[in-house]
Every structure is written in structure tokens, then in C-alpha cells.
Write a structure and sequence with these properties.
With 358 residues, this protein is α/β, with parallel strands linked by helices. The chain has 16 helices and 7 strands. It folds into 3 domains: 156 residues, 3-Layer(aba) Sandwich (Rossmann fold), CATH 3.40.50; 60 residues; 91 residues, Orthogonal Bundle (Chromosomal Replication Initiator Protein Dnaa, Chain: A). The protein has a 5-stranded parallel beta sheet with strand order 4-5-6-3-7, sandwiched between helices. It has a two-stranded antiparallel sheet with strand order 1-2. Helix 6 packs parallel to helix 7.
Length: 358
């Protein structure tokens, strides 16, 4: 297994980097957390050349000429943010804060709106135009506002012309995002899109071993393999399984691990749903009936019914004091939609992962 070192004082596992040369795993370190390694199994081998090129050398223009923008595509827990933040920190140590910018798509929209309202639009544009690296996270959450999308398109044009490097993360391929402005969709589709998969069994075992070492946990080979085999899904789910496995060893047999997990609160669900759909919590609780609000509200209701023991009346009280029959109707409408709408199914799956992550 090979690794590309980033400037990090707490990179776990560096002593064993040379001992796995026969492994099919590859690892790209990241500084998102103390576990500063992105482990790539065979399922993510196609992502490695671009990542290695982007994280090597002291100059960015070469990477920009080969692929620009670089789009990291994948569902929650595949490592998009892990890599994006690692790339950001790698280049900040070399270029400085003024040359590197990390923004979520929602942050971009908020900063743009603030700049326009305060008469600072030219300063906002100049700051971005002088970057050597721009990282934009969660493109799929970019507000569907023409001004915002045109501004991002123009920013990309300026940076591409200046051979600056652009990295974008998203859960949906740009070419398939019908709500994107045509020019913005074309710019993003014209670069290199790298699809990241959830880790396979080899990568899961390696991640478990690294995380266990970081936490000072003692697991033998059989235990590691057992956890790797049975825990499919995103990386946070894998680390949660490790924590629960370790905790279970210290509990009486009759005490389930789930009993120690604090129950979800409705205010948590409302906050996460509002953030996910780029809305305010006040809007979700309001009487407004815009289509986007009605849908997001029904998602929050469905999650509250499936992840808590709250009644329709209790949910209605927290969502603008709505009648329990209104809440019941919204819940049943969403359940019907889930049977046939893939987008809704994906939203519910991702939100459940966020809400139940360790």
C-alpha cells in the first residue's frame, strides 16, 4: 500500500507504510481528522491517478492543465469531504491562506448575497479571481437561483483562464443536474469527474485497523475481518460499528449498546433537514406553502415518525402548531412518494445517515 504524505504531525500509521507493498490497497492521506489517510481499495482505483497528481509537487498549474475542474462524485461517507479538506490543507501549507479557498456551495451563495447587499461584490469577485485553488463542497446543494449559479459559472471561467485549480464535490453528476444553469453544468462536465465508491471489504479492514490504532483499541485479525465483512456502507457507519464493538466488550451481556445512545430530538431533525435543503428552521415551521417547503417539511415529518417515538400531535406542535391530521397526511403522502421516486429515496437515505452517524 502506498501513501502520499501531507504535512501532518499526527498522521497515524506511517510506520507501516512500507510493509504492505503487496496489498491492492492504496492510501492518500488527508488532514480532515486525526485519521489522516484516505484508503482506496480496488473499488476506488480509478480515482488514484488524479489524486496523486494533485497532491504531489509544489506547483498547482500542472494539475490544472490536466483536469479542471476535478469533480469528486459520491454518496455520503465515500470520502469526498475527507479528500477535499485534505487537498485544501495540503496546498494552504504551501501557498498560504490568501491563495486557497474552501467553501460549501451554500457558503458561496451566502457570501455572494452578503457581498451584494453590502456593496462589496467587486471585492468578493477579486478575492476569488486571485486564488490558485478553489474547493467547492456539496455542489448538489447550490441554491437554484440564476444569479448565484451564473456567478459561480463566471468564477470558474476566470479561474480556468488563469490556470487555477478547481475541486468540486457532489452527490450527483453535474451533467445530470437539471437545475444547474446550462453554462455552469457545461463547465463542470468539461473537467474530470471521479466517482468514489463506499469502501470494499479490503478497504474497510484497513480503515478499521487505522482507526483502532488511533484510538488505542486492541483487535486481533479475526475481529478486524469479522467487522470488515459484516459492516457495509459509508465510513462513518464503519467507525460507529468499531466503537460499538469495543463498547460491547465492557457491557453486561443483557445491556444492549443501543440503550446508551441518546434518542434523537425533533429539533435535531428539523435543523438537519433545513440545512440539507438550504432552508431556515423558521421557514420549515412557518405557514408558507411553497412547493420546496412543503416537500422538506414532509421529509422532516417522515424522519420524525421513523426515528423517534413522537406522535403526530407532538410533531405538529413543533412544526408551527399544525393539526395532527395535517401531519398524518404529509407523512402518508411522502410514504407513497418513496415507493416510486428515486430522488426522495436518496434524500431519506442520506438524511438518516447524517442523523444516525456516530
Amino acid at each position: 500500500m502506498s501513501r502520499i504524505a501531507l504535512p501532518s504531525s499526527d498522521w497515524a500509521g506511517s510506520d507501516r507504510a512500507g510493509s504492505d507493498r503487496g496489498s491492492s490497497l492504496r492510501a492518500v492521506p488527508s488532514q480532515l481528522s486525526r485519521l489522516s489517510t484516505f484508503v482506496a481499495g480496488p473499488e476506488n482505483r480509478l480515482a488514484l491517478p488524479a489524486l496523486e497528481r494533485l497532491l504531489s509537487g509544489d506547483q498547482l498549474p500542472e494539475a490544472a492543465e490536466l483536469f479542471n475542474p476535478l469533480v469528486l462524485l459520491g454518496s455520503t461517507g465515500t470520502g469526498k469531504s475527507h479528500l477535499a479538506r485534505g487537498i485544501t490543507r495540503h496546498w494552504r501549507t504551501r501557498l498560504g491562506d490568501s491563495e486557497v479557498e474552501y467553501l460549501t456551495a451554500i457558503d458561496f451563495a451566502r457570501q455572494l448575497r452578503a457581498a451584494r447587499e453590502e456593496g462589496q461584490l467587486d471585492n468578493f469577485r477579486d478575492r476569488l479571481a486571485n486564488l490558485q485553488l478553489l474547493v467547492v463542497e456539496d455542489l448538489h446543494r447550490l441554491p437554484h437561483r440564476p444569479f448565484v449559479q451564473r456567478e459561480l459559472r463566471d468564477t470558474l471561467d476566470v479561474l480556468i483562464e488563469a490556470t487555477a485549480t478547481i475541486v468540486v464535490t457532489t452527490q450527483q453528476p453535474p451533467a445530470a443536474m437539471a437545475d444547474l444553469e446550462t453554462g455552469l453544468r457545461d463547465r463542470l462536465s468539461g473537467g474530470l469527474t471521479v466517482r468514489l465508491q463506499t469502501p470494499g471489504v479490503e478497504a474497510r479492514r484497513e480503515l478499521l485497523q487505522l482507526k483502532a490504532a488511533e484510538r488505542g483499541l486492541q483487535l486481533d485479525d479475526q475481529q478486524l475481518q469479522l467487522l470488515a465483512n459484516k459492516t457495509e456502507g459509508p465510513v462513518p457507519q464503519l467507525f460507529r460499528a468499531l466503537a460499538e464493538f469495543n463498547l460491547a466488550k465492557t457491557l453486561p451481556v443483557e445491556q444492549p449498546v443501543d440503550s446508551l445512545r441518546p434518542p434523537l430530538k425533533l429539533k435535531q431533525i428539523i435543523a438537519v433537514v433545513a440545512r440539507y435543503y438550504s432552508l431556515t428552521q423558521a421557514a420549515l415551521r412557518s405557514a408558507a406553502r411553497r412547493k420546496s417547503l412543503v416537500y422538506a417539511r414532509s421529509v422532516a415529518i417522515h424522519l420524525a415518525r421513523t426515528l423517534t417515538n413522537l406522535s403526530y400531535a407532538q410533531i405538529g406542535e413543533s412544526l408551527g402548531r399544525r393539526d395532527h391530521t395535517t401531519i398524518m397526511h404529509a407523512s402518508r403522502t411522502l410514504e407513497k412518494r418513496l415507493l416510486s421516486d428515486a430522488s426522495t429515496q436518496q434524500d431519506i437515505e442520506e438524511l438518516k445517515r447524517i442523523l444516525t452517524a456516530a
